[in-house]
């Protein structure tokens, strides 16, 4: 069994920042406590980890933690969870990383499973519960809009990245598969940024050709949804849907939305309304926001589906640290990979914009009181912009639920 000596250099320097000696059960319980307190999204979660494990207990030097966080922000996946896995490896080797990651995600997973179970047994349509969820859905749209702005501020750092995002949005509206869109976005931006304009033009031509073949073949993977259940999903399909979301989560959990929605709502396994309800519930739990995939998996395939999709979503967050523990910081120095990932991330921003427009249109057609729903959206958006607090998201969801209960019945 591998331990810390396999991964971190030893040192005789007195006072060196390194984890304390912990048993495996103690390590698991340490990160389980983090999971129970993981309210407020990734910023609050990372701040909690930094305060306790870097500033107070000195598990890792502050400068190394900063570099590690920069790497996690480049790679797909929930950064706070990836940090927990990495620090668990630093303490007790790969098994320690697995235990730390499981401990951090377990409270949110259990709570989301319980909420999904209750959701499928509550009377929703035409009841006060349905009105509450309609109000929450309007608030969720506002939360996503604010998230897009926040994500864009960190990703769209120049005119070419803006152009990449806009081109991706236009291609998505035209029904081009997101695989074509993202690969082309990453390659074109990386090539264009290094002055290889001819090769960038070739990639654009190949992307157009691939999209044309997709259209003529009648298998366009558009962002639109049919609403017709094509077939019962297999566990492999749900795992793959979660894995795609986990691999394409750049800059925040909301970037997984278009991919998870495409593979579930797009297949008729759930409705847009149910999808938005899952997003709303994830905003009030102590967990990485990608825990909404657990709800989506439950609605699509029951308990087994929930576990399959959760496993797919979180697998990359475990794998990057477990497989590349001592090489992760080299990612920061890999210029071409950075450029490619920057282009992909910009393309993802464009896809989220299209997705939130689709979700907003769906919500508008389902509400019995458009004015009340618009009011909820406006108030929620104002709160999200004006109130810089980790409580902002749960508060606006509570506002949506309260107003919806009285106005959307």
TrEMBL record:
<feature type="transmembrane region" description="Helical">
    <location>
        <begin position="197"/>
        <end position="216"/>
    </location>
</feature>
<dbReference type="InterPro" id="IPR014047">
    <property type="entry name" value="Chr_Tranpt_l_chain"/>
</dbReference>
<dbReference type="Pfam" id="PF02417">
    <property type="entry name" value="Chromate_transp"/>
</dbReference>
<dbReference type="GO" id="GO:0015109">
    <property type="term" value="F:chromate transmembrane transporter activity"/>
</dbReference>
<feature type="transmembrane region" description="Helical">
    <location>
        <begin position="280"/>
        <end position="299"/>
    </location>
</feature>
<dbReference type="InterPro" id="IPR003370">
    <property type="entry name" value="Chromate_transpt"/>
</dbReference>
<feature type="transmembrane region" description="Helical">
    <location>
        <begin position="160"/>
        <end position="191"/>
    </location>
</feature>
<keyword id="KW-0812">Transmembrane</keyword>
<keyword id="KW-1003">Cell membrane</keyword>
<dbReference type="GO" id="GO:0005886">
    <property type="term" value="C:plasma membrane"/>
</dbReference>
<protein>
    <submittedName>
        <fullName>Chromate transporter</fullName>
    </submittedName>
</protein>
<feature type="transmembrane region" description="Helical">
    <location>
        <begin position="337"/>
        <end position="357"/>
    </location>
</feature>
<feature type="transmembrane region" description="Helical">
    <location>
        <begin position="391"/>
        <end position="408"/>
    </location>
</feature>
<feature type="transmembrane region" description="Helical">
    <location>
        <begin position="98"/>
        <end position="120"/>
    </location>
</feature>
<feature type="transmembrane region" description="Helical">
    <location>
        <begin position="126"/>
        <end position="148"/>
    </location>
</feature>
<feature type="transmembrane region" description="Helical">
    <location>
        <begin position="306"/>
        <end position="325"/>
    </location>
</feature>
<comment type="similarity">
    <text>Belongs to the chromate ion transporter (CHR) (TC 2.A.51) family.</text>
</comment>
<feature type="transmembrane region" description="Helical">
    <location>
        <begin position="237"/>
        <end position="260"/>
    </location>
</feature>
<keyword id="KW-1133">Transmembrane helix</keyword>
<feature type="transmembrane region" description="Helical">
    <location>
        <begin position="369"/>
        <end position="385"/>
    </location>
</feature>
<keyword id="KW-0472">Membrane</keyword>
């Amino acid at each position: 069994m591998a331990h810390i000596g396999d991964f971190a250099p030893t040192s005789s320097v007195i006072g060196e920042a390194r984890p304390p000696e912990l048993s495996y059960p103690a390590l698991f319980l340490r990160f389980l406590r983090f999971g129970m307190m993981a309210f407020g999204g990734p910023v609050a979660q990372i701040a909690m980890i930094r305060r306790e494990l870097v500033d107070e207990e000195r598990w890792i030097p502050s400068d190394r933690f900063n570099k590690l966080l920069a790497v996690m922000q480049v790679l797909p996946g929930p950064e706070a969870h990836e940090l927990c896995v990495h620090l668990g490896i630093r303490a007790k080797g790969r098994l320690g990383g697995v235990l730390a990651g499981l401990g951090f995600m377990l409270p949110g997973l259990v709570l989301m499973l319980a909420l999904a179970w209750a959701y499928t047994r509550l009377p929703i349509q035409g009841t006060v519960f349905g009105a509450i969820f309609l109000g929450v859905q309007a608030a969720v749209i506002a939360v996503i809009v604010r998230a897009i702005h926040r994500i864009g501020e960190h990703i769209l750092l120049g005119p070419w990245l803006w152009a990449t995002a806009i081109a991706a949005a236009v291609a998505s509206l035209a029904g081009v598969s997101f695989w074509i869109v993202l690969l082309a976005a990453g390659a074109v931006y990386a090539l264009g940024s290094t002055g290889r304009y001819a090769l960038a033009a070739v990639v654009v031509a190949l992307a157009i050709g691939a999209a044309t073949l997709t259209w003529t073949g009648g298998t366009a993977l558009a962002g639109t949804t049919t609403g017709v259940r094509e077939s019962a999903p297999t566990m492999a399909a749900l795992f793959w849907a979660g894995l795609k979301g986990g691999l394409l989560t750049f800059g925040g959990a909301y970037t997984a939305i278009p991919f998870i929605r495409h593979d579930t709502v797009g297949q008729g396994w759930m409705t847009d309304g149910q999808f938005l309800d899952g997003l709303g519930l994830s905003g009030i739990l102590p967990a990485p926001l990608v825990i909404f995939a657990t709800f989506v998996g439950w609605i699509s395939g029951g308990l087994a589906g929930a576990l399959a999709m959760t496993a797919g979503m979180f697998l990359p967050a475990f794998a990057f640290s477990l497989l590349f523990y001592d090489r992760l910081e080299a990612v920061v120095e890999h210029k071409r990979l950075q450029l490619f990932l920057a282009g992909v991330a910009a393309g993802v921003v464009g896809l989220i914009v299209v997705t939130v427009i689709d979700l907003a249109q769906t919500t508008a057609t389902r509400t019995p009181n458009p004015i009340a729903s618009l009011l909820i959206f406006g108030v929620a958006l104002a709160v999200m912009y004006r109130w810089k607090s980790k409580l902002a998201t749960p508060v606006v969801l509570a506002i949506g639920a309260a107003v919806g209960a009285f106005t959307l019945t």
